[in-house]
Amino acid sequence: EIVLTQSPATLSLSPGEKATLSCRASQSVHSYLAWFQQKPGQAPRLLIYDSSNRVTGIPARFSGSGSGTDFTLTISSLEPEDFAVYYCQQRYSWPPATFGQGTRLEIK
Amino acid sequence: EVQLLESGGNLVQPGGSLRLSCAASGFTFSNSDMSWVRQAPGKGLEWVSGISGSGDSTYYADSVKGRFTISRDNSKNTLYLQLNSLRVEDTAVYYCANTAAGAFDYWGQGTLVIVSS
Lengths: 108, 117
What we know:
The complex is a heterodimer of chains A (108) and B (117). Chain A has 108 residues and is mostly beta strands. Chain A is built from no helices and 11 strands. In chain B, the strands form 2 sheets. In chain B, strands 2, 4, 5, 6, 9, 10 and 11 form a 7-stranded mixed β-sheet that branches. In chain B, strands 1-3-8-7 form a 4-stranded antiparallel β-sheet, with no helix packed on it.
């Protein structure tokens, strides 16, 4: 099973700052990596699929990059509504799909 | 508009059973692979099970294999998850998700299963 490790576990930043979230895979997943945002009491929402493709309706401040084992989600300038938990997920070895343990983005 | 609506979650004793349902609308259900993903309280996301659009192929996480059964009724646009031999560690919100080759693009709001004596 492919293990995804996200870092940092918690990221404390202020609105307007840039956020950089990392996801590392235990073996190559090529570009088959997605990013989700989850707010309290809500279902996860797909932001980015296949490493760098933004879902329709997701603001341009969200971008994804990487391939192989190292991936990054960047939020260029944080808005108040961006503070949430973010998960990466790989589909290269589907099934199963595996998720990272999450990064909590909190207001500093 | 794609909508997924889960139901069936409840409080159940260890060793008990439940059946979860997920009613789908807004897309061609029979053409779509579907999955169940769960989230224990305060924890991360765990993929549980998946099924092909026709229902011919099913997949399970090792943690639920032999205890949970995924199925679908394409005439009713409904996905199911039968949970048997429930354990305390199965306590979670269970989400259904539209699955395109392992990509979860639409999610329901979830249904809560509590396993406790």
